[in-house]
Amino acid sequence: NGHENAYENILVETRERVGIITLNRPRALNALDAATLREVVSASTALDADPGIGAIVLTGSEKAFAAGADIKEMAGRSAPEMYLADWFAGWDAFTRVRTPVVAAVSGYALGGGCELAMMCDLLIAADTARFGQPEINLGVIPGMGGSQRLARAVGKAKAMDMVLTGRHIDAVEAERAGLVSRVVPAADLLQEALDVAGTIAAKSLPSVLAAKEAVDTAFETTLAQGVHLERRLFHALFATEDQKEGMAAFTQKREPRFTHR
Ligand code: CAA
């Protein structure tokens, strides 16, 4: 249905209402170069615009979700070049995707790989996953939001530990810290992610988008304003047929048949 375009560094497929983007640059452990950024943004934006898609899964290979931004591509650049190109700013477009994105992480999620996973809405890890912000070992710091999203996800203590030492954490520590929502055996990772995405894609889309917007707002605003926005979104959903259908189905003890999916 038009999503399986010829990309160089990613694979794109759809299964019913779920879009799947697979990072596929094995020779560089899926290092995120400028071309990969363009492709991920292009594919996710196209899936987002498709009313037939209700959730997206972003995954990598067994060995690496992504081993970071492409170090070789950046190494020789000057500060003015980085500044004028606004290096990494292109990823902001990925965070503007409204369709929920489930990251399925196996193996290394380091530097920009960890940061890309944290841009997703829900993070599922294989027991082989390793997360880290090793930029400090390169004489730099995270540049795709790691210092901010890690601090919000796991708190100051662990964020400082990871960002200052470059230490990797395994899937168990990542779950304990609240970075990932589930850990599954590596062999089950994609199926688990597809099940979660399929579950989300079966709901009424307006309520899914409102739910994502409401939770995201918790990280951008005061408690009072966040609670206010949530209540207004809640009220607005009473304008949908799916609210009537969902509540009628509950009282009639049957499954809802949502229109907006
Ligand atoms: N950029 C460019 N190339 C990379 C890469 C990266 N981030 N990570 C791995 N590669 C390349 C390697 O150079 C190697 O290529 P060659 O075969 O041509 O030498 C290939 O991928 C395979 O990697 P290794 O041989 O190193 O594999 P390994 O199993 O021995 O080690 C690893 C795996 C521990 C993940 C190691 O590759 C590694 O430390 N990678 C770099 C991790 C890192 O520092 N990430 C942060 C990048 S900076 C950043 O992300 C900035 C930001 O905030 C956005």
UniProtKB/TrEMBL annotation:
**Entry similarity comment:** Belongs to the enoyl-CoA hydratase/isomerase family.
Q: Which Pfam families match?
A: ECH_1
Note the superkingdom of the native organism: Bacteria
Taxonomic lineage: Bacteria, Bacillati, Actinomycetota, Actinomycetes, Micrococcales
Checking InterPro entries in the record gives: ClpP/crotonase-like_dom_sf (IPR029045), Enoyl-CoA_hyd/isom_CS (IPR018376), Enoyl-CoA_hydra/iso (IPR001753), Enoyl-CoA_hydra_C (IPR014748)
Please write the reaction equations for the catalytic activity of this protein: a 4-saturated-(3S)-3-hydroxyacyl-CoA = a (3E)-enoyl-CoA + H2O; a (3S)-3-hydroxyacyl-CoA = a (2E)-enoyl-CoA + H2O
Return the PANTHER family for the record. Answer: ENOYL-COA HYDRATASE, MITOCHONDRIAL (PTHR11941:SF54), ENOYL-COA HYDRATASE-RELATED (PTHR11941)
Keywords noted in UniProt: Lyase
Protein name per the record = Enoyl-CoA hydratase
Q: Which SUPFAM superfamilies match?
A: ClpP/crotonase
